[in-house]
Request: fold
Amino acid sequence: MSHHKFLKLQTPDEARDAWLERIESECSAPGPEFVPLAQSLRRVTAAPIAARRSSPAFHGAAMDGFAVLAEKTFTASTRKPLRLEINKDAFRINTGRPMPENTNAVVMIENVNIGDDGRFVTLEQAVFPWQHVRKAGEDMVETEIILAPGTSIGPYEIGALAAAGALEVEVFRQPLVCIIPSGSDLEKLEDCVEADLRSGRKLPEFNSLVFSELIGEAGGKPLVMPIVEDDPQAVAQAIENAAKAGADLIILNAGTSAGSRDFSAEVIDRMGEVTAHGVAMMPGKPTVLGLVPSAGKKIPIIGAPGYPVSAVLSLEKFVVPLLAAWQKRLPPQAETVEVHPCNPMPSKPGMEEHVRVKLGSVNGKTFAIPLPRGAGTVNSLSRADAIITIPAACEGLNADEKVRASLLKPWQQIEGALLAIGSHDNTLDLVDSMLRRKFPRFRLTSAHVGSLGGLLALGRGNCHLAGSHLLDPETGIYNQAAIRTHLKGRPVNLVRLVEREQGLIVAPGNPLGISNFADLARDDVRFINRQKGSGTRMLLDYQLAQAGISPTSIAGYKDEEYTHMTVASAVLSGRANVGMGVRAAANALGLEFIPVGMENYDLVIPGEFMEDERIRALLRVIRSDEFKKAALAMGGYGVENSGEIIWEHGVQQGMSS
Reply:
């Protein structure tokens, strides 16, 4: 089968609107059905629901006291108390009980005096008609519409329906969405738990799990079909099987691009019609939209890209609005906030780009730090606080430019976050976990741009603290010289997080026999480096200079990663033979470690934040025995001085700087 080229790129809105218009005119929407009230949670009403009875169905007491006819009490006063006979003119009543005949008000029990003989009550104040009485139909009246069509039924709505006597409700049938995972290299998720996936011949299939939850939240009923191999006939048969299963919508996952094993668009075109192939958005460009005939009707079908982030954004852009349209309701709209990118965000003109970001609110201003933009980085979705949409006509965003971001997490979480920008260390995740557990309102959000990048961000006021391990070659002291240079006039505290062991990370058994920095220049060795501005990169350059080794002689010197864990991962995967990082990263992935020496990893915290309750909570965590024990267990860390303020830079007039 020949390659299927992308059709003319359409904007996401154009592609969606055209597809929905065809579906509305040519496809059968799921009809209504009746379900028991107890099974109606999160279902959507298909018709107006009227009260079958009034609530309350009778006049009832709203207070404990005595039921009376209000008109008989009009003469009561402190000068002339009114005496009423119990069980003749005044009747004992408890809250919620029906009012006796010929009564229309309740006197609160504390406002009456009961005679010693228990036969009479005395009132010193008149009551008005219907005082402290819940009138019949006060909540709802029989035949009154209580829920409109398109209402999602929640716990409160169930209570209203129960009070109205609507024990069976008319709702839209949940659209059956059949999910077809495709790819000869896919394996069931449960079969991959203990498998070694490093060969790349098999991949765990988990997109269908994510799809199912998205569809369920949107009011659909997911049905995951068996994995289908990369074969046009097999793909076509899987689509037919989904149609026979009663699918209202079919999602064909993967095979949507223009590669030699991408058949989704051609199969859909051969079986029915492709309305769009290629959408001007990133991620999600290879999305396919179409219709396929089955048993005298047409079924909407979407070919979602295989990469997880692309696939999720494709579903949110096209599937969620369709399910909402079928249920006559608006798609959910995320809350938006004004944010300011910490750094420029370049973007490709002509493509609407959706950038996942982490957020931090510093002195009332919310800053956004982009996460990795790769279409396969599913972890970026779970870590993201918000999404910034860069319009297709835009070449990107400038640093500190005002832009709206759609929240993925509650604002309360973001408001309680400490934003740390700077060098990466594995203990930052440990601190975040302990902070969340001990102080649920707070968390530590970290972005890894290197030690120097962190100090510069701190100088711009873009974060609460920075992680740093910048060695001054002249003095052998960490961070202080860099702080003097880059944070002039900014009072800061240098707080020790950990001492940590730096070294060379190599494969288990050290198959190339690497023992020192000179070995990095060997022809058979490929290195993986940290990014410019990182403390590890500066330490490496210092060691190379000491050994008289030119960086240009090292293969891979220009290949960069942003964390110790990704350096270790590059070695584990065989992409590199050696990288420089901390022992904890090597230990985490079962790699061998050649120590170079200990260094100080510190947190640089402006003096203005030291009394912030989030910083106080952070320091309590770092100073705790629990943190120190956990850090020691990771290997390669020293914690003797963890949490100590080891240097103050211009914190008070006259102090050492």
About this structure: The radius of gyration is 34 Å.
